[in-house]
């Protein structure tokens, strides 16, 4: 048997140079310091994305898109399909945990300044992954075609209409008509299960390739440390085993959440019914939604809502380009301003989210 295993290994090695790859993996190492914990959140985001793909494909076995079938098929999934309720619940919970993990990963990369040269494009591709994850969440939310999702999507897409000149056209493209209808549902479905997975996979591949090529960043303070004072652990197996343990813990948390707090389906959407009170988007959009709500109808001759959209767009672009304008950090100086900006953004997002819940 051992001989057979060896022969099989050699067969592949002759063709695909696996020995070289194993050699490469065994030399990979991860810096060990008091902020090393943050190196795990990219892996956690990745794990939760894989869960989304697996459970999403399973849901696709029974989900049937359409005004007359979406809600009914999800109802069928949760009541008749064996473990269907569990798969749907895991897909919904994991979507939320994934977005939370991506936010934690992004802020930790920001505060540890891991976006510095040469990782500028790792940051930019990561930011694109965040936008894609949010679009995944927004498009998936409508798919069960229940009351809450219907009105949240109506309110969410309305914001596009506030853009001058092209807003109306854009809104029609997004909704597939003037209103949120079955056309919107099938558009969101295509986006959710075909377009987004395709684009996401390509960008994720590039993101991980960059990380592979450059290895993990070292803290800026290490530049003054003599090489013998810098500590590392091997990626394989030490770091990977820790990664796997954390993934197992997260799988357990997911299972507990999905079993004890199964995701509610609610009432079927009725486009002619009045909007129920307290309609609000998912928590990860709430800080933007709440800001738009608090803005006065007119700011400096501009429609208040559009002013908000403009500010968020500009702020988002500046955030995406932070590795290019944070020149001070790149040159090796301490840049306190960057920490203050990050702290302001974080506190702003948390405060507005809490206000969003408190004021509705
Ligand atoms: C679903 C989304 C994402 C996935 C699956 C992902 C995955 C990963 C993984 C596995 C790593 C290596 C381990 C680690 O540092 O945690 C990593 C590193 C990195 N990611 Fe992401 N990431 C995502 C989103 C983001 C976002 C939103 C940003 C920032 C805007 C970002 C910026 C970076 C940077 C700069 C590194 C290098 C960190 C270092 O060298 O210390 N990523 N990512
Ligand atoms: C290839 C990947 C994916 C596939 C094939 C997929 C497929 C599906 C399907 C068929 C549904 C409708 C069933 C239902 O509503 O229970 C759904 C719902 C949903 N998806 Fe995905 N999905 C994928 C990835 C993602 C990702 C990455 C996220 C978020 C980050 C996400 C978030 C959601 C949400 C929030 C719902 C609504 C859940 C509900 O209330 O029922 N999905 N997805």
TrEMBL record:
UniProt-listed Gene3D superfamilies: Cytochrome Bc1 Complex, Chain C
A Gene Ontology BP annotation from the UniProt entry: respiratory electron transport chain
GO cellular component, one term: membrane
Ranges where the Cytochrome b/b6 C-terminal region profile domain occurs: 225-360
Record has Iron-sulfur as a keyword: no
Compartment(s): Membrane
UniProt entry keywords in alphabetical sequence: Electron transport, Heme, Iron, Membrane, Metal-binding, Respiratory chain, Transmembrane, Transmembrane helix, Transport
Superkingdom as given in the UniProt entry: Bacteria
InterPro entries according to UniProt: Cyt_b/b6_C, Cyt_b/b6_C_sf, Cyt_b/b6_N, Cytb/b6-like_sf, Cytochrome_b_N_euk/bac, Di-haem_cyt_TM
Membrane topology: Multi-pass membrane protein
Span of domain Cytochrome b/b6 N-terminal region profile: 8-220
Residues passing through the membrane, by range: 37-63, 90-111, 123-143, 189-211, 239-263, 306-325, 337-359
GO molecular function, one term: metal ion binding
Location (main, coarse): membrane
A Pfam family assignment: Cytochrom_B_C
Protein name (database record): Cytochrome b6
